[in-house]
């Protein structure tokens, strides 16, 4: 039986952690579908929209050599995605392992024959950290330094 994998994520500010997940996922399946979470779902889940718009994130992810197909994930229910895409392996970061959400996900997928495989979460690089760095760089200067606009190179 062909192993069809599904790895979903925002893939905002694409970085090595994203690449590692997609590389590991492809190593454990024959055909890899990457679900790129829509701007609206990111807003709903994380309280903010991605910096990179969905259409651009889809293009980036679809060009990664490990990905056979990239799709927009527009509904939060992973079982709905399964009904449409018919994957039999679901890949998730291990930050979900053992959590109430992770347990519910495993139970729901087990009922339809989908294996859940966890991968190590890349702690040292994350889109949240990159976003914070960008926000810090773009924040207005305050206090005595507010008149300084030069950058030392």
Chain-wise SSE layout:
Layout: E1 4-9, H1 16-27, E2 31-37, H2 39-46, H3 54-62, E3 69-73, H4 78-85, E4 89-93, H5 100-110, E5 115-119, H6 127-138
Parallel strand pairs: 1-2, 1-4, 2-3, 4-5
**Separate helix tally:** 6
Count up the domains: 1
Query: In which range does the helix fraction lie?
Result: 25-40%
Strand content range? 15-25%
Q: What class do helices, strands and sheet pairing give? A: alpha/beta
What is the CATH topology assignment?
Answer: Rossmann fold
Structure in words:
The chain starts with a strand and ends in a 15-residue tail after the last helix. 39% of the residues lie in helices and 18% in strands. The chain is globular. It has a five-stranded parallel sheet. The protein has six helices and five strands. It is of the alpha/beta class and 153 residues long.
Summed up, what is this model?
The protein has 153 residues and is of the alpha/beta class. It has helices at residues 16-27, 39-46, 54-62, 78-85, 100-110, 127-138; strands at residues 4-9, 31-37, 69-73, 89-93, 115-119. The radius of gyration is 18 Å and the shape is globular.
């Amino acid at each position: 039986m062909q192993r069809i994998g599904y790895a979903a994520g925002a893939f905002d500010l694409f970085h090595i952690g994203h690449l590692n997940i997609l590389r590991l996922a492809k190593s454990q399946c024959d055909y890899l579908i990457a679900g790129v979470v829509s701007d609206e779902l990111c807003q709903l889940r994380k309280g903010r929209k991605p910096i990179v718009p969905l259409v651009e994130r889809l293009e980036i992810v679809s060009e990664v050599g490990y990905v056979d197909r990239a799709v927009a994930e527009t509904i939060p229910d992973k079982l709905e995605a399964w009904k449409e895409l018919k994957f039999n392996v679901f890949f998730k970061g291990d930050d979900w392992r053992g959590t109430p959400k992770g347990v519910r996900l495993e139970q729901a997928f087990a009922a339809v024959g989908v294996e859940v495989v966890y991968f190590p979460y890349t702690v040292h690089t994350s889109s949240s950290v990159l976003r914070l760095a960008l926000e810090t760089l773009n924040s207005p200067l305050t206090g005595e330094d507010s008149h300084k606009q030069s950058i030392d190179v």
